[in-house]
Amino acid sequence: MKVLLVTSSLSRSGGGVATAVQALSRSLLATNADVNVVGLRDSGWERDTEEWQGIPASPLRVLGPSAIGYAPEARGCLERSGADIAHSHGIWKYPSRAVAKWGASTGRPYVVSPHGMLDAWALKHSAWKKKIAARLYENTHLRRAGCFHALCEAEAQAIRELGFRNPICVIPNGIALPSFEERKPAPWRSIVPEDHRVMLFLGRLHPKKNIAALIEAWPSDAANTNWHLAIAGWDEGGYAEVLRKLVKARHLEDRIHFLGPMFGSEKDAAFRSADAFVLSSLSEGLPIAVLEAWSYGLPVLQTEACNLPEGFREKAAFRLSLEPDRIAREIRVFMGMTPEAQQEMGRNGRRLAERSFCWGSVAGQLLQVYAWLLDGGTPPACVRI
Questions:
Q1: Residue 214 burial by Cβ neighbours in a 10 Å radius (0-12, 13-18, 19+)
Q2: Residues 19-78: pLDDT tens digits?
Q3: Which residues lie closer than 8 Å to 78 by C-beta, 6 or more apart?
Q4: 334 pLDDT exceeds 90?
Q5: Enclosing H/E stretch for 20
Q6: What region does 366 belong to: left with phi over 0, alpha with psi -120 to 50, or beta?
Q7: Of 174, 152, 156, which is closest to residue 384 (Cα–Cα)?
Q8: Where is the Glycosyltransferase subfamily 4-like N-terminal domain (predicted)?
Q9: pLDDT-derived band at 177, boundaries 50, 70, 90
């Protein structure tokens, strides 16, 4: 089976989508599937090229505004691939049009993974641009999909509420489980006393992550509990400066620390050294960062918008609200838990990650969906008709 994965970004500039496509590609290749990846070349490609080592990836040159992502080479690249099936990751940019055209010209099926981009909050963000894209090409791309890929039941419901009646497979993102090794030096070792505790945020610095509310909620007397907030992530559109000003206005520079983007061994050290992980998002598809935190055995503080209700059911996550005043009370409750109770929450998360979120299982389920779209027969168990 020749599988073509198509995405609007091949770098960290695209958030967690590029990371998910990389991991899925490696897992599919491990099954001996013939896999190729096509994506837009953006400002982060040169920096992240090594992340794609061993994966056949084609970065496409973009002409004009990056928000549109017009890549004139896209359609020819797709047609030359000889793929049996295509899988779109992310929407709203020119690759959507190219995939729809490829499907129409070849008669071959394709899958669409919106990665949370059809959730209500996401649709309201830059709504006018999305309405234009929908009218020009995105509605066609979505309507013609052989199957949607939703990361969770909530995303599947959001797709249905928009009126789409295509089949939907519900398959979560996955993670590669780290081994338990000796703790590496913490990235914050020069600014946080060794006997103090750290709650880690790791991801894009973007309004939908609701980091501003988290900063406003951070207890001003956190010195009494020895907790620090470490914010690790890459800036998007200058938002980091907005957040820094909030920290300065609250006089919390000695308790809230900006560490910049972290990848590879540095990210691994951050997860191994943290005492908890937090994601206060307003909207998510299914956040890989939470799955990674569980894989490292960390207790997680998350909102319901993270779409991981199993975390609450399995007592692997502490529930956060969206508003600063409520978040402040909830963080105090978490900080007041005994270290033993927090560690048990982390162990529950590790067990949950091992059981439900490994990339090998994700790739296997998607291969079943691809085969069903190509050959027909009984839909796989993950498919909602």
A1: buried
A2: 899 999 999 999 999 999 999 988 778 888 888 989 999 999 999 888 888 999 998 999
A3: 4, 6, 38, 86, 98, 99, 102
A4: yes
A5: helix 16-30
A6: alpha
A7: 156
A8: 15-174
A9: confident
- Take residue 353 and report the two structure tokens written for it: 């990650």
**Of 71-75, 124-128, 160-164, 172-176, highest mean pLDDT:** 160-164
Which residue bears the tokens 């988290």? 214
CA distance 293 to 213: 21
Please give the residue range of the domain that contains residue 308: 197-356
In a domain, 183, yes or no: no
CB-based burial label for 178 (10 Å; 0-12, 13-18, 19+): middle
DSSP strand E in 129-252: where? 147-150, 168-170, 197-202, 227-232
Amino acid at 87: H
Q: What is the CA radius of gyration of the chain?
A: 21
Mean pLDDT of the region 190-211: 94
Label residue 121 by pLDDT band (50, 70, 90).
confident
Place of tokens 């990751």: 89
State the chain's mean pLDDT as an integer. Answer: 92
Number of structural domains in the chain: 2
Tell me the three state secondary structure of residue 150.
Answer: strand
Q: Which residues contact 218 (CB under 8 A, 6 or more apart)?
A: 229, 250, 252, 255, 256, 328, 331
In whole angstroms, give the CA distance from residue 105 to residue 325: 54
- Higher pLDDT, residue 109 or 134: 109
- Amino acid letter, 380: P
CATH number of the domain bearing residue 298: 3.40.50.2000
Same domain for 21 and 119? yes
The single-letter code of the amino acid at 32 is N
Q: What was the pLDDT predicted at 237? A: 81
287 lies in the same domain as 328: yes
Q: Where are the beta strands (DSSP E) in the chain?
A: 2-7, 34-40, 57-60, 85-89, 110-113, 147-150, 168-170, 197-202, 227-232, 256-260, 276-279, 300-303, 317-320, 383-384
Query: Is 75 inside any structural domain?
Result: yes
Co-location of 352 and 364 in the same domain = no
Cα distance between the two ends of the chain: 24
